[in-house]
Design a protein that fits this description.
The chain is an all-beta fold. Among the domains are: 176 residues, no CATH class; 115 residues, no CATH class. 3% of the residues lie in helices and 54% in strands. The strands form 5 sheets. A 9-stranded antiparallel beta sheet has the order 16-17-18-19-20-21-22-23-24, with no helix packed on it. Strands 1, 2, 3, 4, 5, 6, 9 and 15 form an 8-stranded mixed beta sheet that branches. Strands 7, 8, 10, 11, 12, 13 and 14 form a 7-stranded antiparallel beta sheet that branches. Strand 20 and strand 21 form a beta hairpin. The longest helix is centred in the N-terminal third of the chain and has 12 residues. It is elongated and about 90 Å long.
């Protein structure tokens, strides 16, 4: 029981006030521009029929629709370095969209990454010919952060400290960037464009192969590497604006440690959390909290390969097996007015297995464990089951001729704000 309590305590500790921005990347690039994937569109310039003209904009000279002396709509933008953006888009004199420009002498290939709900999506490659510009993201950028990378012959021309999965040579789209990239892909560094928020939010950016943001202000300064002394931890890694920004390690005074990607000091993406009890949690963070599928390496050597988590809490009823032999588990619960029992779930040595997945809505749950046909964990709550074969019984309090009644242990998840949505326990050794 002490083991169970310590693990439940760990889940609470995993509700960090951090965040990991995470992803991956690498690449040579596809040859056909027609194969380029498109990111989600932004917001366009809206209705109206501005007059045609030529005006100066912060990026250079714009020839196209104007209104009240400002660029308004799509037109031809000649940048101050001489490159041209066809169909450049403006609204009230503000440049919209994300544009790649290549001032070099050889074609380069670009990739983008952005947050989509709980996950980060990465896409590429976008071909940018020498002395040309292309626009992979049109319209006003509708989110604060977009990461980008430009490659030449598999090497980064523009990259950074935010890692996402990319294919080294082919077009790709990774809807989920986790600590382990899909087969054939690898994690590579991206730079980060910060479009701000509120009244100061910017609508676009033009990125040149020199690494400079041609349009004013959308790309923050490159992070430096250093150490920050915080109230309860020491951070070592990429730093921008006095905060953890990029890849780094947060070492806590209680012995815990978090390694991953950081934005404004908070975790949002793949990371590895080693808690003060030396249990290791590997998975995605969202706003500082573990979520989705998480691997847990417990300090006793057992492994939970795919725990379901939300806001730092585990879902479902699971059993871990620290014994040297196989254990089988059964679960009991109430469904409407009927009592249900289901089994047997095989739990191999040093593994953890769900007896019930998803959020546990009911307050009371029941389980039974056997090994070699003998009881390992039982209790005073009787359910009907088959002693040897797989079974699923409705009205498990009423036993048919083929079944036997056996004792189950009760789990009380509590109620109200203190109610748990998951429970993990060990088979007795």
């Amino acid at each position: 029981m002490s083991q169970v309590v310590s693990r439940i305590t760990v889940w609470t500790r995993a509700v960090l006030t951090l965040a990991v921005l995470c992803a991956s990347g690498y690449g040579v690039g596809i040859e056909a521009a027609s194969a380029q994937p498109k990111p989600p569109g932004g917001t366009g310039t809206g209705a109206g029929t501005p007059a045609a003209g030529t005006v100066q904009v912060p990026e250079g000279q714009f020839a196209g629709p104007t209104k009240d002396g400002k660029a308004n709509g799509k037109g031809r933008l000649t940048l101050r370095n001489g490159l041209v953006v066809e169909d450049a888009e403006y609204q009230d004199g503000v440049q919209l969209g994300l544009v790649f420009c290549n001032s070099g002498d050889a074609a380069v290939f670009g990739a983008l990454a952005w947050r989509e709900g709980d996950d980060w999506t990465s896409k590429g490659w976008y071909r940018v010919d020498a002395k040309k510009c292309m626009t992979p993201w049109t319209g006003r950028i509708d989110r604060r952060y977009v990461a980008y990378r430009l490659d030449l012959s598999g090497q980064a021309v523009v990259g950074g400290d935010f890692f996402f999965c990319v294919h080294p040579s082919d077009g790709f789209e990774n809807a989920k960037n986790t600590a382990t990239c899909p087969a054939g892909t690898a994690r590579r560094g991206f730079a980060l464009a910060d479009f701000g928020e509120g009244a100061g939010r910017r609508g676009g950016v033009i990125i040149d192969t020199s690494g400079a943001a041609v349009s004013a202000g959308a790309t923050p300064p490159a992070p430096t590497t250093g150490t920050l002394e915080l109230a309860d931890a020491t951070y070592t890694g990429a730093i921008r604006d006095g905060k953890a920004n990029g890849r780094g390690v947060m070492a806590y005074k209680d012995g815990a440690r978090l390694e991953g990607e950081f934005v404004d000091g908070v975790a949002n993406g793949p990371g590895v959390w080693l808690d003060k009890n030396k249990n290791k949690w590997s998975g995605n963070f969202k706003d500082g909290l573990l979520f989705g599928k998480v691997r847990i390496d417990w300090n006793d050597g057992t492994v939970f390969e795919s725990a379901d988590m939300e806001q730092g809490r585990i879902h479902g009823l699971a059993v871990c097996n620290p014994r040297p032999s196989v254990v089988f588990g059964a679960v009991g619960y109430k469904e409407g007015e009927a009592w249900m029992a289901k089994g047997w779930y095989r739990i191999d040595p040093n593994q953890c297995v769900y007896l019930r997945t998803g959020k546990l809505e009911q307050r009371y749950w029941y389980y039974r464990l056997i090994a070699g046909g003998a009881e390992v964990k039982g209790g005073e709550h009787l359910f009907c089951l088959h002693p040897e074969n797989a079974f699923e019984m409705k009205d498990a309090d009423q036993c048919p001729a083929s079944g036997v009644r056996a004792g189950f242990t009760q789990v009380d998840l509590g109620e109200g704000n203190a109610k748990k949505i998951g429970y993990v326990t060990d088979a007795p050794k």
